[in-house]
Amino acid sequence: MKYFNSKYLTIDKLSQNSHDMISLRLKEFVKRYKITEYPINCFKLLERIISSNTIKLKYKESDQFSENLDAAAGYHGKEAGYCIMFNSRKIGSFDFSPHRRCNFTLAHELGHIFLGHLLIPSRMKSEADLICEEREADEFASRLLMPKILILNCNFITNVTAEFLVSSPALFTRVNNLKRLDLYKSKPVPTCKTCGNTHFSLCTKYCKICGTEVNKSTTRGIMRIVYSKFIIGSNKCHEYGHENDWNARYCELCGQPTLYNDILPAWQIERKKYIKSLVRIEYREKSQKIS
Fold first, then answer.
1. Beta carbons within 8 Å of 24's beta carbon, 6+ residues apart
2. Residue 88 lies in a domain
3. Sheet holding 82-87: strands in order across?
4. What is the average pLDDT score of the chain?
5. What is the spatial distance between Cα 113 and Cα 65, in angstroms, rounded to a whole number?
6. Are residues 260 and 118 in the same domain?
7. Is the pTM of this model over 0.85?
8. Dihedral in degrees, nearest 10, Cα atoms 99, 102, 107, 108
9. Do 37 and 178 lie in a common domain?
10. Cis bond leading into 98, ω under 30°?
11. Closest CA to 10 of 178, 180, 125
12. Same structural domain for residues 48 and 166?
């Protein structure tokens, strides 16, 4: 089956050397700056990079850009280092898809920097070289903000773009390059909006992981999270004596804390660990392919 639009496919236009370089540089980047939480706010990430003093980098806003230019990165020699100039008129709340485009743009400029594109002046490159570098920076940004393994763990419903802080076109391009446009038509799995739990019994009134009341609205979550089942013993509800699953923090009937609520790790911590483990698997697989 064909699950991509060849008109907008860019991934096949990159050489294997480009793919390998992006994978290697991205793995180094994620490790160096300890990127373990998603979604990634690139403005906060930029502050972390600057404060780490691992690279000479400055960031400035300007209102002198043309309307169709979001940002530009430049290299000014060993002493001055790199500078990213951003169109101040394009920065806005991440609540809106057009403004989330800024997040991808910043990741794109970081791609130019960490892929080494700026070390050679543009005037010394051919048009084909510049086009290739733009595609490489786009791919770097796409993989950074939207890891494949997380994309595949999502329900493709309204606001899925907000889960990754990207615009609708950026998400479409990523999914198209993964050749998984079928995801847009996939049937959503009932998922808790608060914690990402996907396990609900027929009698469930409250989410067993976070205690959120279950209804059609609260089960339209996006990122699906698997919570470990700790084999301990009986996990009864204080109120009704209902026997809950071993990983239940809250009773699915009354929403009150279970016997193991204080014993089990906080669901927020386990959620972060699960996402971190997924991304770690993805980067491990990519490094094995390169070697």
1. 287, 290
2. yes
3. 57-62, 82-87, 71-75
4. 91
5. 20
6. no
7. yes
8. 120
9. yes
10. no
11. 178
12. yes
Extract the tokens encoding 161: 């773009």
- Could you tell me the two tokens for 212? 């959120």
Q: Which helix (H) or strand (E) holds 25?
A: helix 16-32
Residues 213-229: tens digit of each pLDDT: 999 999 999 999 999 98
Residue 54 within any structural domain of the chain: yes
In a domain, 287, yes or no: no
41 shares its domain with 170: yes
Q: Which of 158, 185, 212 is the last residue of a domain?
A: 185
Residue 128 burial class via C-beta count within 10 angstroms: exposed 0-12, middle 13-18, buried 19 and up: exposed
Q: Are residue 220 and residue 83 in the same domain, yes or no? A: no
Structure tokens at 264: 């089990």
Instruction: Tell me: do 102 and 241 sit in the same domain.
Output: no
Q: Which residues span the domain enclosing 102? A: 6-185
Give the range among 10-19, 21-30, 251-260, 276-285 with minimum mean pLDDT.
276-285
What is the spatial distance between Cα 192 and Cα 148, in angstroms, rounded to a whole number?
21
Question: How far apart are alpha carbons 221 and 156 in whole angstroms?
Answer: 10
CA distance 217 to 164: 21
